[in-house]
Amino acid sequence: MRELEAKNYSYFEESINQSDSVKSKQIARLWIAKSKSEKNWIQLTKAYRAIIFLEYEKKRLNYVDSLITAAKKTKDAETIGQAYLTKGIVYYSQKKHNQALDNYLLADGYISQTKNKKAFYKVKYSIAHTKYYLGFYDEAISLFQECLIYFDEESDIAYLNTLHSLGLCYNKIGKYNKSSYYNKIGLLSCIELENTTMIAYFNHSEAINDYGNGNYRRAIAELKKCIPQMQTRKDFANETLANFYIGMSYWRLNQKEQAIPYFKKIDTALQKYNYTKTDLRHAYELLIDYYKKSNNQQLQLHYIDRLLKVDSILNNNYKYLSKRIFKEYDTKKLLLDKNQIKQQMITGYRVHYTVISALTGIVIFLVWRHKRNKKRYKLKFEELMSKKEIPLKQLTENNNDNGFEINPELVKTILQNLEKFEKNKKYLEKDMTLIKLSGYLKTNPKYASKVILKYRGKKTIEYISDLKIDYIVDKLKTENKFRNYTNKALADEAGFGSTQNFTKAFNKRLEMPPTFFIQQLKDSFPL
């Protein structure tokens, strides 16, 4: 361990590994000790943040206050804001919404002073969740929509989480089709991003939509499939919600005897985790009604007491959260808007005199950029056409064997099937995904993606996309009719899901837009 003490800070940051938490915690503690001894407060905040998410959930709060203290010593608004955001996230993961909101609001106060968009949208996302919890679904939707646009380009996990949150919000206001729309996008995105973690959550959300649409038997079946996955993740909140809607579905089917055990599981969650929501309150009303009609006064009184406890928790939480989110968050936003409007009015007269010069500058810039791009595209086109084969990123073997443990005979079979896949142009099928490709290769998605990465040098989505573009390029060069196709028609021909995806893939592959490439072909190589 003495060797570790002599390591530089980059070593500590790169050595933290979530899959080996025991060793990583030892490294994090040395990182903390080194930072303290050198009074490097920025590194100390990083070290505390690392160890927080390596610890068990119940122990995380032990380090959070130390993180805040270290952050304040930096006197840096962004670092302090990030520390409060981390504290809020820890509280939220424990369903302590009051404390979570307190820290989100503190984080918002600091981070709004900085230019850190990532942190800014993290806070916005957290506030949106508080709005959702309080039942202000339209306001939550507006915030989540803003986050979705940002996360689409910045973070796959945050993008999927935001899609899921939007689906939940639309479900709450009875717009089940809209909710299903976001669930479907989420499931497709999970496949495209090769992220299976969120699939259970989108299925969970869609099953709740089934309940809303009156498809009670399907809701029961799908939610029962989700529960083991929620238990594996120790996600008692979504497990409890699944139990509630299974119980409600049985109740709607007039199978009350089967509904009661699921309602009782909601009370178990209350006793074990002190967890409840406004949705779940109705289960207690039904339990009271059920035992009243069964003349079981003892259980009737028991669940009346439980309902009183639920109401007490909800009243305290909601009153507190509502007061703070409107007083400190919404009022702050209104004041910011007011100040911005005032500033715009004060400086408005200057705009009149500068707008002409600004527009002129923009036009000059756009013309210059267009000429520059056109020149660059033309040089690239000439380079491509000077060779028999377009010198794009060739499909070469990736010799990195790290983590590649597949039976050589199986690899040989997969490669043979891959060659058939390419020869028969199966990649032109609409919405070709890793799962569909795995079917053609007669293997599982994990092996398929590993073999493609090693022997074609690309991730699966890029591999399929490049094959489609190469096919279109060949058709444009050899068959005149294709040069008269629209981008939409070319996208359909290659099996792309949208014109936007086609043009984006074409640009990435050839470093020029398809329209420019086609025009150059017409001018330079007429058929």
Topology, please?
Blueprint: H1 2-5, H2 9-15, H3 21-37, H4 41-52, H5 61-74, H6 77-93, H7 97-111, H8 117-134, H9 137-154, H10 156-172, H11 176-192, H12 199-212, H13 216-232, H14 236-252, H15 256-273, H16 278-293, H17 297-385, H18 408-423, H19 434-441, H20 445-456, H21 460-478, H22 487-494, H23 499-510, H24 514-524
Description of the structure:
The protein has 24 helices and no strands. The chain has 527 residues and is mainly alpha-helical. It has a domain of 117 residues: Orthogonal Bundle (Arc Repressor Mutant, subunit A), CATH 1.10.10. The relative contact order is 0.04. Helix content is 78%, strand content 0%. About 3% of the residues have low confidence. Helix 9 packs antiparallel against helix 10, helix 10 packs antiparallel against helix 11 and helix 22 crosses helix 23.
